[in-house]
Amino acid sequence: MLTFTVRRLLQLPLVLFAVSLIIVGMMQFLPPSARAAAFVKSEQQLAHIDEIIKQYHLDAPFYVQYWTWVQNALHGNFGFSRVAKKPVLEAFAEKLPVSAELAFYAFLPMLIVSIWLGTLAAIYRDKLIDQIVRVLAVLFWSIPTFVLGIALVAVVYGYLRLFGIGRLPSDLIIELAQASAVGKFHYYTGFLTLDGLLNGRLDVTWAALKHLVLPALTLILVQGAQLVRVMRSSMLDELGKDYVRTARAKGLPDRVVYYKHARRNALIPIITLAGLMFAFMINGVVITETIFNLPGLGQWAALAAVQLDQPAILGFALLTAVIVTTANIVVDLLYALVDPRIRYE
Amino acid sequence: MAELAAMKPQRESFWRSRVWKRFRRNPLALVGTAIVIFYVLVAIFAPALTADRMGRNCLRDLGLKRTEAARVLRNPLHPVFWRATVAPPKSCYRIPRKGYSPVPKPPSKKYPLGLAGGGYDIYYGLVWGTRTAFYVGILVVGIALLIGILIGGASGYIGGWVDNLLMRFTDVIYAFPGLVLVMVVVTIFGRSLTTIMLAIAVVGWPTYARMLRGNILKTKAQDYVDAARALGAGGLRIFFKHVLPNSIGPLIILASLDIGSIVLSVAALSFLGLGPGIGFADWGQMVNFARGWIVGPPGEPLKYWYTWVWPSLMIALFVLGWNLLGDAVRDALDPRS
Amino acid sequence: MKKGLLAGILISALGLALATPKDTFVHMTFGEVDTLDPAQAYDTASNYIIENVYETLYTYKKDSLTEYEPLLATSYEIKDGGKTYVFHLRKGVKFHSGNAMTCKDAEYSFERVLVTNPGDSWGWFLAESLVGYDVNAKAAAEEKLGKNPDPKKLKAFLDDYWKKIDASVECDGLYTLTFHLAKPDPTFFAKLLYAGAAIVDSKWAIAHGEWSGTKKDWEAWIGKDLRQGYLHNHMSGTGPYKLVKWDGKDVVAEAFDGYWGKKPKIKKVLVQVVNEEPTRIEALKRGDADRIAVTSRAVLESQVRNIPGVKVWENKNWAPAAAGAVFFNQAPAAKDNPYLGSGKLDGQGVPPDFFKDEHVRKAFAYAIDQDAIIDELYLGKGVKLTMALPPSFLGYDPKLPIYSYDPDKMEAHFKKAFGGKLWNTGFEITILYNEGNRVRQTIAEMFKANIEEINPKFKVKVQGVQWPDFIRAVSKRQLPVFILGWGADYADPDNFIYTFYHSRGYYGNKIGIKDQEMDRLIEEARTITDAKKRAELYHQVGKRAYETAPLVPYPLPSPFIVTRNNVTGVYYNPMLSGTFLWKDIEKK
Prior knowledge:
The complex is a heterotrimer of chains A (345), B (337) and C (588). Chain B is mainly alpha-helical. Helix content of chain B is 69%, strand content 1%. In chain B, helix 8 (122-158) packs antiparallel against helix 13 (235-271) and helix 13 (235-271) runs antiparallel to helix 15 (305-333). The model of chain B has no long low-confidence stretch (mean pLDDT 82). Chain C is an alpha+beta fold. Chain C has three domains: 3-32 and 249-318 and 559-587, D-Maltodextrin-Binding Protein, domain 2 (3-Layer(aba) Sandwich); 58-96 and 104-198, Dipeptide-binding Protein, domain 1; 322-557, Dipeptide-binding Protein, domain 3 (Roll). Helices cover 34% and strands 17% of the residues of chain C. Chain C is globular. Mean pLDDT of chain C is 91; it is low at 3-8 and 11-17. Classes of the chains: A mainly alpha (345), B mainly alpha (337), C alpha+beta (588). Chains in contact: A-B, A-C, B-C.
């Protein structure tokens, strides 16, 4: 087990190398004038594109660009993100907590509700509750996310005047900006709900929570729908197994059989999917972040991709590679722990 | 001899098999099938359904005059009917515009589903968008499946260092932030539908590869494979006759579910400004036309409902249909229910 | 008592907030600030902040583009036939850091712009007046001496460049600032009103690691990307507001207690970037925003206009300080050009000299339906342009004719083109627009519809491309016809006329204009100072532009501002990035 983990971890640098090479390689398909896209925002700047190309060495050959980047990266300098207007690492440190906070508050409720509904649908297979759950699940998953998001903004925030958009209401934004400028408020973690507590500002925590409700709800509905279906399917597989029939024949009450035994086994494939989903959510969910105005990783990555902000794309891709690979390793380990039939050489 | 011939087990006819019976009895299965068939018909008869509202360039490329379009395109005996149905020119995928006003117009007699912002005919866009949906869905899933089967199959069958190498390669692709990679590829290589499809396929095959490899490993360990080997069957024969058919089932089901979800990915790309060009008949594009119009003026918040309800419904039903179908097939094949 | 408490808890729990307080101004917009360094910023979002936090020598009188009022300077004189400008600085002005403003700060600020002048900044138009080069020292050296110059020659060149910088801005005592121009430039005063031509706190900047202000370390700062420096996200100016925080997205500012002028009524400002328009509109409805950006007239009329509590400011005399046009490229690149089709007059493409034929240009000019653009795109509220110059600028002639949609004239000109051959061979041409710009896309499609109707052999392909592809195609001169615009850098007609119509202007060059008479008129206008004479020259430029039709301006939308109805004091100055200054408004 240990050797397995170590071996997988050692493969991480290889993965990172491959990822970065592929991205820089792809950018070479663009001529320097196109690569200047991230630097040219207006027609006025377009007029001076030749100077821009020279200034940022956009016409240097592939290996020079890559080697420069690698050298800098090894010293902890991942370059400057034109989209974020600050160094890549700094941008990360700022945006990661935003996405992670949303992921955290969306993930747990989603997990609980999906597992519950999926199990229910499996146990009462083909009955009304099953049909309803399945159709609702597909419906919520197939509604384009931004339609759901904007509908929530309009109905709940606009019409019912509940909750809020962005991370905090504007008066708190101004107040915290002034306070942090004079050292009266510290962003210890970047998680507003946590920082509020750590600074003794419960009103900040409360406001942050209120502003998380709508985006978290959007994620729960859309991602949860997918999880419900997988849970149902996995639970059905379990319920069809021999040991379930045996246990019931032996007289064990249904509740014990279903919830204590079958569901636990059914959770195994859920671990994989949930783990990947969490990693995916931390990476930032572009559409939700855009609509609810959360300055997270998703928005940044999307803008960087469209504007070809190379340092940002590279940094983001590498971080994702690290997160996903780690998540994969953790999932595989959990898998092995839970299912004694699986062994790794 | 005659007894032996008589004793040869008969292949059970599909229509009398248990699988079909189980499928037939499941109401949701029938609903799913009906939905998918509906979309197939809409896609096939797109030219006929939109003959009276085609754009000028589409008519020009088909060589038709506007007055004869409706007559010709609804007449299966006419060669142009077949040309339009089987291989329509690219210009037919451009949604015709009535005027250029950015304000959507409600459903009217001529435009039964209304006009989206920019004067785009919603009915036309949805009908031809069905073709795009199938085209994209089947091609993307097809390519991803092909790559996935090749790599997953080789990995599972050959094993050893080949398996290791291929799986590490799969890890790298898996580790890529999918959406970002697709966006970068599309930004660099252009926004044509082909590029988008290839990009999504390239990002999506690892799931199939891993699943196939996992199933192959499980099947290889099964008893009947050992039995076949004991009876003298060769390695390759065992693979293609026993291992592969038994491992591929879940893949096909997953693929059928994915056909629906690819549409959602393309819609997400349109949201980010990277879909096929504005004005192309694609459901995702159409939902995006509605982006600024989901909320109307104060007092009539649902004034422009038709801009987002119709496309969203179209997408949702499509995904629902494939899902119900896929679920039902899986339930029917499941010997334990 | 208890009921009230309960209600209060409930209200707060559900997030039912009151509208923003009276001394706070919240503006939700969609452009992100690029940098807060006045020497580097060249975009609207950045200058919007800079113009409220830093101050220039003179400024516009509220919304007038022709009347100015003293700001950090109290008076000025022009000497030596326009080669010397002497400004007398205001006394008793303090920076946000507490330092006092003197001529040393002014000299430092302007020299800093000349020293750094990064490729993507605005420094070029200050440098071209003061130093005679529009690029920074290193770029100029490369132009003059090549890529690998002799080190001695390079040093000599740089020393000479430094001498020019040093000599162009000088102080005489604490409050007299003198500019020595490279040659007389009647546009110089207008240039000084640009937001970036502001006075920065030199002591504070130097103390935080910026350029020392002397020759000692200047070479390290030539062409430097100032986004890595201290001034990128820290500000110390003389303006009525000081920066509290910029986190890369939102900007928080508060009123400066030590401001030398009238204390503003608004004490706290939050500029929030909210990219999704429906979200902005909802916030405006709820009073969480006092001003929002609305991107189109269509959305304004159909969703925003009748919201209770909201005011739409507009006036038919308002016009943006911008111009957009359809350009006819008379000399597109002939080789490796995917947009020329076959490159021949055979109906499958266009030859490179397609637009050299005046009949072709005029035929295309008559294909633009200006009225339809205004009616359909701008819902009737648009501004037609007679020439590529904003109507509120000196020299604009509203009496010139405008090309309008006329299928008969189109046909007549097409039939005369290429000696009559074009009508029979036909052509196929590609019009490009940058993806996401609906206005330009619509104009392109209108072209397509109108031209293709005339003759079935005329084929127009409309293609939307991503910004990177678009700028590549434009800079490589590949596009036979394209749609672009220009926003004013400074309130002088030369900024537009030279750019659009002169053979060496950015656009003029790109489309191969080689009109000697036009060049002569433009060059004369940029050397004389008499406003009336200049206006007359520009009228002639406009007339000639109509007659030769190298490009055709398209109509622009009438501007509007959207705020809550308790905001007063709003005005529209198209040269201000925020259209009005925070210090001039208040909330009732």
